[in-house]
Amino acid sequence: MSKMASQIKVEIIERQTVKPSSPTPHHLRNYELSHFDQNAFQIYLSLLLVYPNADATTNNERCQHLLQSLSKTLTHFYPLAGRIKGDAVIECNDDGAEFAKARVKCTISEILEHPDPELLRRFLAIEHESSESVTGTLLRVQINLFECGGMAIGLSISHKFADTSTLSTFINCWTATAHDESNKLMFPKFGAASLLSPLNLSNSEPPPLQPEEAAEEKCMTRRFVFDASKIAALQSKVASSVVPKPTRVEAVSALIWKCQIEASSRSSPNMLGTSLIRPSLFSHPMNLRKYAVPPLPENLVGNLVDFSIADYSHPGESTSVIDLKDLTAKIKGALEKIKQRCASKVVFDSNKAREKMKEYIDVVKNADIDTYVCSSWCRFPFYEADFGRGKPSWVSYIPVEANNLTVLMDKRDGNGIEAWVNLSQENMALFESNEELLAYASLNPRVTY
Length: 449
Hints:
Shape: globular
InterPro entries: CAT-like_dom_sf
Largest sheet: 7 strands, mixed
Keywords: Acyltransferase, Transferase
Pfam families: Transferase
Protein name: Deacetylvindoline O-acetyltransferase-like
Family: Belongs to the plant acyltransferase family.
């Protein structure tokens, strides 16, 4: 445990079950999972919403308001109060979600000085990798109360039910309910299973979050912050005739991938001590809602994500040949392939989805290829999450301990990006000292708001 995480005490002072304020009708008892839900990783998706200092005497009132509004929200998101039964159904039995309160022995400014991933994980009601995400409570909320009167809400939602877009829809629904603004309430839309019919997975293995070799290796997590001006300069640098206007995410992803390739290659030199390029794949989970033809509703619940895969393989060549513009073009090309698959509806074919998942699992298991996943949580309106006492001063993804996983989050200004990067200890030592990376990103600076 890090020094900061061990010094700060996080004490659970209350834990209770929250049930929907109205019982779920019998005809909605069984919620069918889609084949994308079935193939989702067996983890919790987690988010931390940090709210500025307030009058600590009102915290009990604030917690009660959050509890009551969550109960009302669960009448709309009724599967989250249920339990997964078998591999294709959530039994919507109103068993409830978990609601915990914790007292944190520090101020919010202390945790924002240099955010510590180990400490942030303690603001959640459960570990990401817990099997409870499949066998138990699907939604867990922990309200963390700080000495300064500030508050941080830790959300954990089963990945078997939700992707990042669904998490965003849930938060929007909860905040609108907390404000009693029924006119602004975006009700969740169910029925993804009718589009993505479930599969018989009785003889199938769940997709691994990472290769077995990587799981055995100690993983390190670092936060890198790209300010808007640096991203603009990077976008200009990686632009080409193939990708004349790279997005923020494409530009940042290309730089991260380049530095990952260099770190891995340098940590595994050949017999002559020369750093030669190791083959690698770079994968982006893509929200299919906006790329389907016609587009799917933004509030359609479930996992509607497919993985783009860009590959880079120049065996026998030095890392000095790696071209950022080339990597950007490869990333862009892989994203365009998914868009074409969406337009042709191939991506929604259950049998083809199963085949692609098997191919993906085989690739991830190949020890001769480095596989990197970069998930963008940018452009989701998490910074609009106002439960009645103002918007959050900081919103953070809470890192899963999975090797070679990167998650991108917006800064509060909506233009900068925070990147949480996981690598092995050896690779991270090389990655975090990469001069090209540090020309555009700051290593774990204080959160400004």
